[in-house]
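Researcher: Re-running this chain for the archive, since the previous output was lost when a drive failed. Same request as before.
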Amino acid sequence: MGLSRLNKLIADAGVASRRAADKLIAEGRVSIDGETITELGFKADPETSDIKVDGESLKLIKSKTYLAFHKPRGVISTMSDPEGRDNLGDYFKDRKERLYHVGRLDRDSEGLILLTNDGDFAHRATHPSYGLEKHYLVEIEGEFNKQLSDQLLQGVRLEDGLARAIKVVHARAVSRNHHWVEITIHEGRYHIIRRLVESLGLKVLRLIRTEFGPIGIGDMKPGKHRILNSPELLKLFKVLNLNN
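Model: Regenerated structure tokens:
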């Protein structure tokens, strides 16, 4: 395999993202053949060296996994839960690799979440600098009009700063006070879609993420998952500037 940067090896093993791996190294939690390594940028050959993180040997991932999952409503976006609540990990107990979820959805929201054992990919896919677009279908209670649509596009001042949609489409009016609206946004701040809509005096009845970057949920049923195909991965890697 040859020499590779230590943070990349840790990320490739599914332990942490490269940035988080650098922190592990700086904190003295990584060793090679029994010697603690704190030098960022250090290179090693995982096939000839025993690399440990917190005393546990690094296991090379021979193949990487990229999954699309339709998270049902009522499931929390964690891989385990000490309180025993329904979580993402419940749906992947039969998989041996350590999976990360890419992007959160709150418990009451549903739709597309990606899962992977590729730590570097997981980090980039959720980092704001790469600006992956997320597309949502939102069921709204309240009167929705062009003025409110324009307000979402211009930006709304929330408690943690300005937030705005990059695209808003009025999909369907069920009645004067019941609408379906498609909202596209770059960022992934906590409850961002809900807070945006509620700041306009409207109520979110249902929130479904239908697209994450170039990946769409298609006709996948809640609780089901599929492996991302090669064209999808190529598009994702291009957006994220990953050479895989």
